[in-house]
Design a protein that fits this description.
237 residues, alpha+beta, Alpha-Beta Plaits, nine-stranded mixed sheet, globular
Length: 237
Amino acid sequence: MDITNKPYQADEASLRIDAYLDMLGEDNTINFLNAVPGADENTEPAVAIRVTLVCVEFDFPDKDDRDSNRQWKQMVATQTLIRELLMVMMDSCHCREIKVVGNYIYGIFSTPFKSQIDEVLETLAKVNSVKDLVSLKLKGKGIKSPKMKIGADYGSVLRTTFRKEEAQPVHLWNGTRFKHLAALVDRQMEEDEDIVVTGRFKQNLKEEYQKYIIAKEERYVANVKNIALKKWIEEHE
């Protein structure tokens, strides 16, 4: 069978690939950055950046549930939670990008200074409290609250930038850190604590915040809340 479509420009592709591979330089190394470059900053096609990575996992309605009305309500509940979580994460001045993939939300935070990592923990406390707020609203409508867990890590990830002609650049984020953090959060889904973090994340927090993170079976967990939001929820229960 013949397929007619736009021909692939092999010559152009060859030049494009060569240009991309040239970023390695003569010593075959990639530059490391301590902060995520701004949108107007001209950077190499690929850089390794030290960031604070946040991962939120949530469960979708049971696909085997034959009650379509109940399944629809649970889907709306999950989407409501996701929308509010995105609002909280985007409200942080350190959040540079958010990716929603399947059951996971990834937030990439630019944190060149340790005080900014402290602020990420404060954002996680707000995220954790927003879950309680949404649960309160859903309870009033007789809808089960979606299960949700939060994870955080600090370290290097690879960012590659793709731009086609005059279109806005697309950033591709890669690295095993994404997979490892998702696996850490996934294992936490059946545990009591809502937040799980890596040792690297904890070590970069100020001492006052480190005391909220406790070691538990080769991982670090916490259950921190936003004080003002927690008080509001208690007053409206």
